[in-house]
Specification:
With 632 residues, the chain is of the alpha+beta class. It has 28 helices and 17 strands. Helices cover 43% and strands 14% of the residues. β13, α7 and β14 form a beta-alpha-beta unit.
Length: 632
């Protein structure tokens, strides 16, 4: 696995080779190979591959990732008059930048994080792929500009204080992950997917998007159902073909869902019935139906199916390592399943396919349905009331009480269905967050957060707006983040055909209804895959399990671990209320939500001890959860 890093110092007299700890920390991504280059007061580095430069050595590329259109890119470069170039991905990306400048990003189709050191134009260009498969963090103060594929690598330089970003922790407790460009470390940011950052040698910088996902929701496809199904079938087939490596063993994950089954089917089709491996992991007694569905798919496609069942005694075994590799706190208990899945797959292959993104692309989950959202007449009444406020009350109030008028104006521009969706899918409600973490609750306003997505107004369908929001938040910042980090920890190349640029743009143009019933989820994908699998499999609903793992983990050992949180850093610093924590522990047997609350606090406590309390090391600590919690 590759990784990129770089440092800009105040001047040449203050260079202290911070690229060394940056690259040393990045080596945990699975490669001992590293390369670096210095120019005046700038250092650029790469792990996993060599840096790439033009003939004059004035433009240098550090690249992490893969491109899926190398042949097309090569043809475009030749047609544009660029001299014949090598066909290696790094060389093509370098040639594209040399030929088109910053416009080169529009020609790339792939999963990547990259950095260009351009001596000719006096700038550094950082860029991240459209959906956010590859991570990229950056820090800038009055003295240094530092960037890296890992948060812990930036901390390892010693330049950035190990201070928690409290607003980011507040958003973590609301969502269960840290969204958008925020990170849990103060003054460190993530580069948003589909954006590039230009840092000029004079110290100025700018961040701009190079891809607009929302614009494709406005390009409505008016085809009949059959042409749409044919086009989807073609795009999926091409996406899988573009990602299959030549002459290397591959595998796929099977979760029991429609997305992973579809990917396995297209792989089977492209590989001309050659056998390949499939991998499934379950929590004992919690998702037996999913495992049965996965077995049905494996049997239908004649796959070599490897399964593992996680038992309660295994649940906490590698949790400290998992959170160390994640770089950020994630409250999703499935991080344990993802770790075991990577571990299992790594015994058989180095390349694995996943159905990641199918739910968010095709509305394949029940969270998008009226059954789970519980849309009421209240939202409709609210919408009508807001129209009244905008037309009459706000202009009047603006004359006598401007502050109140501004507050009402903000509320009147909030879509009640979108705001309700945000709340319905939150980890902590606003009221519960205020009880659990009063200091943090003041730092996060879900309504203000929703207004950051100003392109939501372009999207007319309510369901489509939910999908857009998830593709901008939950998908990259929770699901992709955990898979990318934990696959890299096991030296696995992880491929996601549903996140293909052309497929995503086409599906966004398909008209979604205002609301969905349970039997209407993933309607286009079901139509594509219906001839392959049984009706009972295709029509399986994918529901939110709000009490997932609660009964499985209410045992003395788990209770003892939760009790240690009362003496933890979060309580001692006043970030979490000790009284609230005690009440949740007492309610483990009775409350349907106590476990998910306590689990999220446990993950955050472990993260805090690894990234704030301890000095950063280049390898994960060999400690159990209990050993870490009683360390200080």
């Amino acid at each position: 696995m590759e990784g990129i890093a770089g440092v800009v110092y105040p001047d040449v007299f203050q260079i202290n080779h911070l690229i060394v700890p940056l690259l040393e920390t990045l080596k945990d991504r699975g490669s001992a190979l590293s390369d670096s280059y210095s120019f005046k007061h700038i250092e650029l580095g790469n792990v996993g591959s060599k840096l790439c430069s033009n003939e004059k050595k004035t433009i240098t590329l550090s690249f992490d990732g893969v491109i899926y259109n190398p042949k097309n890119l090569h043809r475009e470069l030749l047609r544009s008059g660029f001299p014949l170039v090598k066909t290696a991905p790094h060389d093509l990306v370098l040639a594209a930048y040399c030929q088109w400048g910053i416009e080169f990003l529009k020609h790339l189709d792939g999963d990547f994080a990259l950095a260009f050191l351009d001596q000719e134009k006096g700038r550094i260009i950082l860029a991240r792929d459209r959906i956010g498969k590859k991570p990229l963090y950056w820090f800038h103060d009055n003295h240094h500009f530092i960037f890296s594929s890992q948060l812990k690598a930036i901390l390892a330089t010693g330049i950035v204080p190990a201070a928690a970003a409290l607003d980011a922790l507040a958003s973590y407790l609301f969502f269960g992950y840290i969204p958008q460009d925020m990170t849990p470390i103060r003054s460190v940011n993530k580069l948003l997917p589909g954006h590039y950052l230009q840092f000029n040698f004079n110290g100025s910088k700018s961040i701009e998007p190079y891809w607009s996902y929302s614009s494709y929701f406005q390009k409505t496809v008016s085809d009949q159902k059959n042409p749409i199904i044919n086009q989807l079938n073609h795009l999926m087939l091409e996406s899988v073909k573009a990602r299959l490596p030549e002459n290397r063993p591959v595998g796929c994950f099977l979760s029991g869902g429609l997305g992973s089954a579809s990917v396995a089917y297209y792989m089977h089709k492209v590989l001309n019935d050659c056998k390949f491996s499939a991998f499934s992991v379950s929590f004992a007694g919690e998702n037996d139906a999913d495992m049965q569905a996965a077995s049905e798919v494996a049997k239908k496609l004649d796959l070599l199916h490897y399964c593992e069942e996680i038992k309660p005694t295994d649940f906490l075994t590698d949790l400290v390592k998992i959170i160390w590799y994640l770089d950020e706190p994630l409250a999703d208990p499935n991080i344990v399943a993802t770790w075991h899945l990577a571990k299992l797959a790594a015994t058989k292959t180095h390349t694995v396919f996943s159905g990641m993104g199918s739910d968010e692309l095709f509305a394949g989950h029940n969270r998008y349905t009226t059954q789970e959202q519980g849309f009421s007449t209240f939202a409709a009444v609210t919408q009508f009331s807001m129209q009244f406020l905008r037309a009459l009350l706000i202009p009047l109030l603006n004359v006598v009480y401007k502050k109140g008028a501004f507050s009402l104006l903000r509320q009147s521009r909030t879509n009640p269905w979108q705001f309700d969706y945000l709340r319905q899918n939150a980890l902590f409600s606003e009221s519960e967050l205020a009880k659990a973490a009063p200091r943090l609750a003041e730092l996060f306003d879900p309504e203000v957060f929703l207004h950051k997505f100003h392109h939501l107004s372009r999207i007319k369908s309510t369901v489509s707006s939910f999908l857009y929001f998830d593709i901008k938040t939950r998908l990259p910042d929770c699901f992709i983040l955990q898979y990318e980090r934990l696959m890299a920890a096991h030296n696995l190349k992880w491929l996601t055909p549903f996140l293909d640029q052309h497929l995503m743009e086409y599906v966004a143009s398909l008209v979604e209804p205002e609301s969905l019933a349970e039997n209407e989820t993933a309607s286009f994908l079901k139509a594509v895959i219906k001839p392959v699998f049984s009706t009972s499999f295709v029509q399986r609903p994918k529901k939110t399990r709000k009490t997932f793992l609660r009964n499985w983990l209410i045992d003395p050992e788990m209770r003892d671990i939760f009790l240690l949180l009362k003496r933890g850093t979060l309580v001692e610093t006043g970030l979490i209320s000790n009284r609230w924590l005690q009440r949740q522990i007492e309610q483990l047997q009775t409350s349907p939500y106590a476990f998910k609350y306590l689990w999220s606090i446990l993950v955050l406590e472990i993260w805090f001890r690894l990234f704030i309390n301890r000095s950063i090391q280049s390898t994960p600590p060999n400690l159990s959860v209990k050993q870490l919690l009683i360390e200080y």
